[in-house]
Write a structure and sequence with these properties.
Oligomer: single chain
Number of domains: 3
Distance between the termini: 62 Å
Number of helices: 15
Strand content: under 5%
Largest sheet: none
CATH class of the largest domain: Mainly Alpha
Length: about 240
């Protein structure tokens, strides 16, 4: 019988905790020795946690979650969070790199045509030889980011338009940006948004953003009238 069955009120089952601790540490690329040193505990104590011989305290689990940059829930059940521990497939990643290189070089070629710029003009602006610039555009060699910035500047091209937004890497980057933006929100706003009961209000705001300005003004006027009626009723009761 598992601990979750004997203690149904527990929010987390500890059945897979040892696996979660080991997998999280290995995924983070940190040794038992280094992690133990950070927490100020003996090496064999952490090893015993990962073998399932002993269970960590809540404070230790919270600290390990922080060290591994893994949600606490993932420590208890790593199988439910495959996206956290996913290691990219080498073949897919290499294919994606080649595709991205072609997309970037093609986008630059199109920008040259639209701007009517010659290789000579951009080579002067970017401080690159014409031969090297041509090899960049033909996709023969990688474009270092500093050279790419000078080329896009010479073409009046926003570097952000070359950023990946479609592949799994691009979507991952977008998710990280959103996480950072969320972390910068006021604490009260973050608390409001993380409460599931408040999600319908967020949905209403999203729908209101799509309303015609005239309809939105009409709706705002209705709210004002309701507020005034409510105030009148309260005064009448007083």
């Amino acid at each position: 019988m598992t601990e979750s069955e004997t203690n149904p009120g527990l929010p987390y089952s500890t059945d897979k905790l040892a696996e979660g601790l080991r997998k999280s540490r290995e995924f983070r690329g940190i040794t038992v020795k280094d992690c133990s040193k950070l927490l100020g505990i003996p090496n064999n104590k952490l090893q015993n946690y990962e073998k399932g011989k002993y269970l960590p305290s809540l404070a230790e689990l919270e600290a390990l979650s922080y060290v591994y940059s893994v949600p606490l829930a993932a420590l208890f059940n790593p199988g439910e969070y495959p996206e956290i521990f996913k290691i990219p497939d080498a073949n897919q990643l290499q294919q994606l790199l080649q595709i991205r290189k072609r997309i970037i070089s093609t986008t630059l070629q199109i920008a040259f045509e639209r701007k009517g710029k010659s290789l000579q003009e951009i080579s002067k602006i970017a401080g690159l030889s014409v031969a090297k610039l041509k090899r960049f555009l033909d996709g023969e060699i990688e474009i270092p980011i500093n050279d790419l910035q000078r080329i896009t500047s010479g073409l009046d091209l926003d570097l952000n338009t070359l950023m990946d937004s479609e592949s799994q890497i691009g979507k991952w980057q977008d998710f990280q940006k959103k996480k950072i933006a969320f972390a910068k929100l006021p604490e009260t706003t973050r608390s409001f948004l993380t409460e599931k009961a408040n999600w319908p209000f967020v949905d209403v705001v999203e729908k209101m953003k799509k309303l015609d300005p005239n309809k939105l003004e009409s709706l705002a006027e209705s709210f004002r009238e309701l507020a005034e009626l409510s105030l009148i009723e309260r005064k009448a009761k007083d």
